[in-house]
Amino acid sequence: MSDIPGPDPDSGSDIDIDVGRGLRIAVSVVVALAVATALFGGYHQVPEGHVGVQKSFGAVTGDQLQPGAHIIVPVKDSVQDVEIRPRTYTMANTEGEGDRPSQADAVTVQTINGTTVDIDITVRYKIEETDASGFVTEWRTVGQAEERLIRPSVRSQLRDEAAGIQTSEIYTNDGRERLGDAAQQKLESAFEGEALVLEEVQVRTVDLPDSYDQALNDKEIAKQRVEEKKFEIQQAEREKERQEIQAEADARVIEIRGEALRDNPVVLKQQYVQSIDDSDKVILATDDEGTPIILQTGRSRGGNTSSADTGFSTNVTNATAGN
After folding, report:
1. What is the C-alpha to C-alpha distance for residues 81 and 242, in angstroms, rounded to an integer?
2. CA 172, CA 142: separation in Å to the nearest integer?
3. pLDDT tens per residue across span 13-34
4. Which residues form the Band domain (predicted)?
5. How far apart are CA 118 and CA 215, in angstroms?
6. DSSP per-residue letters across 168-181
7. pTM above 0.70?
8. Residue 109: helix, strand or coil by DSSP?
9. Counting Cβ atoms within 10 Å, is residue 173 exposed (0-12), middle (13-18) or buried (19+)?
10. How far apart are CA 62 and CA 162, in angstroms?
């Protein structure tokens, strides 16, 4: 008999175990590769309100990705998200308000009078959605476009326009509108051929020097005083007119009363008699013969009522009686 051993009855089960282990290892490798791909740039999520500009080894390919999840080739491909919603760029004199929050960033200009004025301005714009790739190619980032295009264009145009405006006009609505229109026209011209859409340019405030503000306040106070003086003069004129009207009315009353007394002499005599008191001594006109008529009123010494109480008494004396 030969000493060569026969086949082992357990060898088949060992082969099955090795195959199962190999499959598990392969699945683990695939999962590891997927995780590594996600970790090393194979997965990209484009947020809402943005488009993804695809690049190959850093160069813009021209392909754009819509919001959502995307798988890209790691290392070789990359995606730059570009916001296409309206944006604002503000230059303000108050720290913390503008796009340079750590400093006062208003546009400083000089009027035709030589007055230095600070202008706060806001530019509202957006990136053209269909040409986001062109925007990235030309400007790379929004910050670059704002610093290299929007900011210098606005500042230079405002300075040029303000140089032809009076100080007394620049802070008015007309002056602000003129500055805003000039800046808008400048940016519209600068945006031609660019992947940028200008929506609005707004002049927010015009800050005058403190000395000019004080002069304006003094002028306004003086104007108010003039208005008050005008009001006083108008009141005086109205009072004068009222007094004149009252005087005319009083004169008319006197005139009417005089006409009435002339038409009724008995009434006049009656009023005259009623007005005489005990101490009155009145010399009336002469009678038809030229004799003076003296009217004497008073009471008798004994307290009896004289004829003046029932009317009056008269002493008629000839002009020659004393001779």
Report:
1. 81
2. 33
3. 555 556 667 778 877 877 777 6
4. 41-220
5. 17
6. HHHTSHHHHHHHHH
7. no
8. strand
9. exposed
10. 42
